[in-house]
């Protein structure tokens, strides 16, 4: 007989792992499906200083490793598969993956979000050849080189500060005349002797031959364009993009309610418009997308899924 899970969780980031932990600990048969690497965005984060109780040397990968271990200790299964379709018309829901299909009494969607691209000429061509979206992954490649960080929020400025440990100079490029990052983070950046700033500017184009060799900026107030060329001795430089995220919710279009930008709409109990389908983490409409809110969402979703199952599948 084909197994019917109590809960299948789509996505293995902090929200999914938290949901998996709470569901498995609640004695529900639990499956976490991750199409890429377990941990989501946090595995690209060097420092997790604002997660309550995090030890001084906590990193994204180390925190995720402990989350995974906890889930498995309580009996949650973790598999690698990409879900292509979900069928929710019946009480028992069906998830069709690339590798196999799964059945569940409840689904928790935690697909997360991915870095938003600049969508300018040259960006795609030079991704991995000078253009990056992960300072933790690629900072070492730019040791003693110059680096530009595009963006002005918390992530952009925090990653820029991290990059100063490697690059000889880090320049933040922001479309406004002041940063959006928290004041405490800004203070660190302004005090860092390796950091410079280009205000009121956006990237127009990225150029090169095999590797990034120049970048064109446009001043949004004056319309003036400026092209920066790599130092002759270096031959290249780094461009790190941190301008927000895109929710990975294409799977749920036409099925679950979402806002105009694709974030899933839930109530405070993580319930979507479909009974037995919950959503948690960065994929949903919310005011703060951080690890601490993702794991809270996941815990709530798991508890609500348990209540739904108890009420819907009464013996």
Q: What do these coordinates show?
A:
The structure is a single chain. With 315 residues, the protein is α/β, with parallel strands linked by helices. The model has no long low-confidence stretch (mean pLDDT 94). The radius of gyration is 22 Å and the shape is elongated. Helix 1 (14-25) runs parallel beside helix 2, helix 1 runs parallel beside helix 6 (291-312) and helix 4 packs parallel to helix 5 (183-191). It is built from 6 helices and 17 strands. The two termini are 19 Å apart. Helix 4 links the parallel strand 9 and strand 10 (169-173). It has helices at 14-25, 60-73, 135-138, 154-163, 183-191, 291-312, and strands at residues 4-10, 30-34, 77-80, 83-87, 93-97, 101-109, 113-115, 131-132, 146-150, 169-173, 195-198, 201-208, 212-219, 225-229, 238-241, 245-247, 277-279. Strands 1, 2, 3, 4, 5, 6 and 17 form a 7-stranded mixed sheet that branches. Strands 8-15-9-10-11 form a 5-stranded parallel sheet, with helices on one face. The chain has 2 domains: 4-115 and 245-312, FAD/NAD(P)-binding domain (3-Layer(bba) Sandwich); 131-241, FAD/NAD(P)-binding domain (3-Layer(bba) Sandwich).
SSE topology sketch:
Elements (H helix, E strand, L loop, with lengths): L3 E7 L3 H12 L4 E5 L25 H14 L3 E4 L2 E5 L5 E5 L3 E9 L3 E3 L15 E2 L2 H4 L7 E5 L3 H10 L5 E5 L9 H9 L3 E4 L2 E8 L3 E8 L5 E5 L8 E4 L3 E3 L29 E3 L11 H22 L3
Parallel strand pairs: 1-2, 1-6, 2-3, 6-17, 8-15, 9-10, 9-15, 10-11
Antiparallel strand pairs: 4-5, 5-6, 7-16, 12-13, 13-14
Helix pairs in contact: 1-2, 1-6, 4-5
